[in-house]
Automatic annotation (TrEMBL), chains A, B:
InterPro entries: ADH-like_C, ADH-like_N, CAD-like, GroES-like_sf, NAD(P)-bd_dom_sf. GO terms for molecular function: cinnamyl-alcohol dehydrogenase activity; metal ion binding. This is cinnamyl-alcohol dehydrogenase. Pathway: Aromatic compound metabolism; phenylpropanoid biosynthesis. It comes from Asparagus officinalis.
Length: 300, 300
């Protein structure tokens, strides 16, 4: 089976999320409705490589289209989210929430946009905190500012204050290790989006919420966290999760991002730089995402 | 200062929640807009005693009304929720959510009704679990059935199945210690209301939820519970809390209960039985709530 994606100029990136059907990799090329594809079979090692390298999507220029293609022409920009294995039959798939079906891959823009919409944290009068200023966090700040929300970045590192305020336009900054600062902010936030994947205490964040406030987790600590129930009761607060979003909402997110000139801050690297990039990722030394220029630095 | 509540025939109970203003106990009797009152001062020891005995409300027949009383006449049934100390000024008080202001007392009917409404678990097409079949749980089943929801009672004790199904009309029953039963029910529920105050694992309950499901805590375990974040993410699930409700919603709850003939199952006891009742409560030996007949068994 041919691998049509190899004919496309492909760049790993964040900002374009125009979809091709998830079912493509189950069909012959001639029947493929779109030319870009995300494979998970033996013949399609590049997407697998990319998937294994980092949660990602592939962005490129369409260089060839099949006879059934209606959404794309040669020369269009398109993105493949490697969303394979959606069943198309369950309630989630039918409701455009196929990302909650099995075998999905997380992406960044939609991973913060979707929960802000779902949990109602997208209204101008609100005050919302963003925990962690990384790939997810910096996009959360940008979307929240575009919604007109008052944004407070919450970080362990005081060194990030300048970047948060001046670089991203955050309205306030809290050092989570500064108990005085945290105490002064108790009960001030309508919601918090927590992007941190390291194990960390939830209660100081729950304390920052007003009554009826929502702590939304998008980072996934490996070990269970401690949850005190009583503070949830007396403040009618909640701790919720969210993971990426469906095709429909991702298209909405992209349209919103285009309208408000929201882009991810990225650093373009050649394929040969991957090992160094991984080392830098582990040290948190990236603002805020690496993009691999595959088309110009790797031959299929 | 006189204690007008002593003039009312007072019975501790659950089912009537018609309110008198919280601010009454700050006024002279002559200025009191209603005759029933809940005091927390030195002169008003009975409400304090009742409060200390159990979370409660006082229900009685109005025997006297002040000149400003507009809602009650002598002979009316009325209930005082001992909701003292609401500030009347914060957003919650202004929005009829004064129960989230300081110094409130939990009650049972509204404690299950309010979260079912707030978290959207009151729609006929839904499937909702109720954990724990006690004072809160049995009312949750009754309200859910009145909403038209499919109800599954989840209990550690298989002995409660008959009562759950035949006594309360539950559609299904799960023994939480039976791993086969629990496994078979994974991903089947839109929501769960958890009334258990003992420390217990949350993950088996979260597993029972469908994607986008909601686990609502109304019991308050003393120690923190373990919360696994990843399952919340991949299923966009949430763990929320709720505590009682405001006056407006409690009136709505009472009206709904009256319309659907929902009453709490109670056992009427004389004041002299209190110590035995407490012993029985500790053993879980009550269906489902003790009511103290103060008017006939205790002199003020």
């Amino acid at each position: 089976m041919g691998s049509t994606w190899r004919k496309a100029k492909v760049v790993l990136g964040l900002n374009l999320c125009v979809y091709v059907p998830r079912t493509m990799d189950e069909k012959d090329d001639d029947e493929s409705p779109e030319v870009l594809r995300c494979g998970d079979g033996d013949d399609e090692t590049l997407p697998l490589l990319l998937y294994n390298f980092s949660r990602h999507e592939i962005v490129g220029i369409v260089t060839e289209v099949g006879s059934d293609v209606t959404k794309f022409r040669v020369g269009d920009k398109a993105a493949v989210r490697c969303m394979v294995g959606g069943c198309d039959g369950c309630d989630d798939c039918k409701n455009g929430l196929e990302s909650y079906c099995r075998d999905t891959i997380f992406t960044y823009g939609i991973t913060v946009y979707s929960p802000l919409k779902y949990y109602g944290l997208d209204r101008p009068s609100l005050s919302v905190g963003v925990v962690g200023l990384g790939g997810l966090g910096h996009l959360a700040v940008k979307f929240l500012k575009a919604f007109g929300v008052k944004v407070t970045v919450i970080s362990t590192s005081p060194r990030k204050e300048k970047e948060a305020r001046e670089g991203l336009g955050a309205d306030a900054f809290l050092v989570s290790r500064d108990s005085e600062q945290m105490k002064a902010a108790i009960g001030t936030m309508d919601g918090i989006i927590d992007t941190v994947s390291a194990v960390h205490p939830l209660q100081p964040l729950i304390d920052l919420l007003k009554n009826h406030g929502k702590l939304v987790m998008v980072g996934a600590p490996e070990k269970p966290l401690e949850l005190q129930v009583f503070p949830l009761l007396v403040g009618r607060k909640l701790v919720g999760g969210s993971a990426t979003g469906g095709m429909q909402e991702t298209q909405e997110m992209i349209d919103f991002a285009a309208e408000h000139s929201i882009t991810a801050d990225t650093e373009l690297i050649p394929m040969s730089y991957i090992n160094t990039a991984i080392e830098r990722l582990l040290k948190g030394d990236v603002k805020y995402r690496f993009v691999i220029d595959i088309a110009n630095t790797m031959e299929a």
